[in-house]
Design brief:
Elements: E1 7-11, H1 16-25, E2 31-36, E3 49-54, H2 62-66, E4 72-75, H3 93-117, E5 123-129, E6 140-141, H4 152-170, E7 174-180, E8 182-184, H5 197-206, E9 211-213, E10 220-221, E11 223-225, H6 226-238, H7 240-243, E12 247-249, E13 256-257, H8 258-273, E14 280-282, E15 298-299, H9 302-308, H10 316-328
Parallel strand pairs: 1-2, 1-4, 2-3, 4-5, 5-7, 6-15, 7-12, 8-11, 9-14
Antiparallel strand pairs: 10-13
Helix pairs in contact: 1-6, 3-4, 5-8, 5-10, 8-10
Length: about 325
């Protein structure tokens, strides 16, 4: 008798990270429920059986319906109110409802399911942020540091992570938090807009505008290409039990000076346009800048690599080249 493949429910399937995870998992013989506010595009080469489920997950009962029967839940939903994907004002209840409330709803749903049905706990993989640690005295984060978040977004993400790991300790679910560094870029098959700083500066350069920095360019960030993030979540699905109960950091292990990154972007854009490279200039930081904006860090992801066998595969220059090409060809304009 044939056995159904596992059902993976992907929350946030049209988001920047979620859409890339969907493309990666669609190559596998799985059942996938792609959950989002608007219909998720099904990859044309999908091997997986994909159910497109549209829902406002903040509505009563929506999370329970979305994860019904799931063996694995991947939670990539991110509150986004405008041009940036992560800044949140203190007291923003809409952001808290998404960033924390949806995880709380998921925990309560799975607690009720566990009490009613027993059986194997659902595996939950949740997308967090390396910035949850807050500014640290060291420049290489490895997951052993004490979290000291300064911004509201990071405080909300940390609150959600603690809910997840507490539920794992209680036996409600088997949960792992995967903290992401600065994720960026486009692949040829991308279907969701990148609102991060790397692609923002690519747009500026293509418009002939200077690339601006709030510092002297020596601030370093660990930049991880979106396709490598998707492969990491696929690896996490394969090793969900080994990862459960902990937070895990993703990154390349290198802190890239943003001034040099932006200069590379300017040069790549000049290749596409045939015009002179736009200047990269320092400007005064805006009032909403946070301490973390001026703090350099890289991420030591050796623990996750050892547990899963994952490695980032795309060199930075190649990832930047793909991103510039995608934007220069006008393909970004149709993305939401």
């Amino acid at each position: 008798m044939a056995v159904n493949p596992p059902l993976v429910t992907l929350l946030g399937a049209t988001g920047f990270v979620g859409s890339a995870v969907l493309r990666e998992l669609a190559r596998r013989p799985l059942r996938i429920r792609a959950v989002s506010r608007r219909p998720a595009p099904v990859p044309p080469d999908a091997r997986a059986e994909i159910e497109v489920h549209t829902a406002d997950l903040t509505a009563p009962g929506a999370v329970a319906e979305a994860v019904a029967g799931a063996d694995v839940v991947i939670h990539t939903v991110l509150y986004s109110a405008g041009a940036t994907t992560w800044r949140v004002e203190k007291g923003d209840t809409a952001a808290e409802r998404v960033n924390v409330g949806l995880l709380r709803d998921l925990v309560e749903t799975l607690r009720e399911r566990r009490a009613a049905e027993g059986g194997t706990p659902v595996r939950v993989l949740w997308a967090g942020a390396a910035s949850q640690a807050g500014p640290q005295d060291k420049e290489v984060l490895d997951g052993t540091e004490t979290d000291r978040p300064r911004g509201e977004y990071d405080r909300q993400k940390l609150a959600a992570e603690r809910l997840l790991l507490a539920a794992d300790a209680e036996g409600v679910l088997r949960g792992a938090a995967i903290r992401l560094p600065t994720v960026f870029g486009y692949a040829p098959e991308s279907t969701a807009r990148d609102k991060g700083v790397v692609t923002l500066m690519t747009r500026r350069a293509l418009a002939g505008e200077p690339i601006t920095m709030w510092h002297d360019g020596t601030v370093r960030r660990d930049l991880l290409y979106i396709e490598d993030v998707a492969r990491a979540f696929a690896a996490a699905v394969d090793h969900a039990d080994a990862l459960a109960g902990r937070r895990w950091l993703l990154g390349t292990g290198r802190g890239e000076p943003l001034g040099a990154v932006f200069t590379t972007i300017a040069a790549l854009v000049a290749e596409h346009t045939g015009k002179s490279a736009v200047p990269v200039v320092s400007v005064p930081p805006p009032a909403h800048a946070e301490p973390g904006d001026f703090h350099s860090f890289a991420v030591d992801s050796s623990a996750f690599r050892t547990a899963t066998g994952w490695r980032p595969q795309t060199p930075l220059d190649e990832a930047l080249r793909r991103t510039v090409a995608f934007c220069a060809e006008g393909r970004e304009e149709s993305l939401l």
